[in-house]
Amino acid sequence: MPSSEVQVVQNLEGGILAKRFVSEGDLVERDQPLMQIDDTMVASSFRERSLKAAQLQAKIIRLRAESRGTGFEQELALAKEPIEAVLLQTERDLFKSRALEYGSKMDVLRQRVEQKRQELSAVRLARSSLAESHDLLQREMAVTRPLVEKGAVSHVELLRLERQLNDLKGELGKATIAIPRLQSEYDEARKNIDTFGQGFCSRGRARN
Length: 208
Known about the structure:
Elements: E1 16-20, E2 35-38, H1 40-68, H2 72-76, H3 85-150, H4 155-207
Antiparallel strand pairs: 1-2
């Protein structure tokens, strides 16, 4: 470089000057160190980025375990790089906590499904029994009516059978109406299980 020209020396990343190896007017050679920049800020920034990367890796392990339905340790075994134990424990504890939350809510939903299944089954069974009783009572009335006309059976007996038949018709109608409603509630309860299972992981990602 001609002596009449001045060359500006600068560090593009900035920093604090720690040492200076030359003075103004000194002759220097190519690749000769001129000064030393304090790397404290650079090292701190590097450590911060490394920590965030490790935190992200630990979080990815947890999310994969949740979305795939596998264990935390199983996904950890697939990790390509080691992760600090403290970071892993944080995500491991969160995984266990969310697994307990998931299991608890899923148990409630399954109990709801079983409850609706039993209710539906009971009403169907009751309707079948009522329909059978209704048919038998109609047959009994068909036999009793001629006997009443002949005076062999009291008219009061026929009235009693008619009241029973009306009561059976009412109960049969209620059961018939209840079946579609209970079927819909049962289907909805089963759907809630699927919806909860599919949405659990996405809700977890949104919270973290």
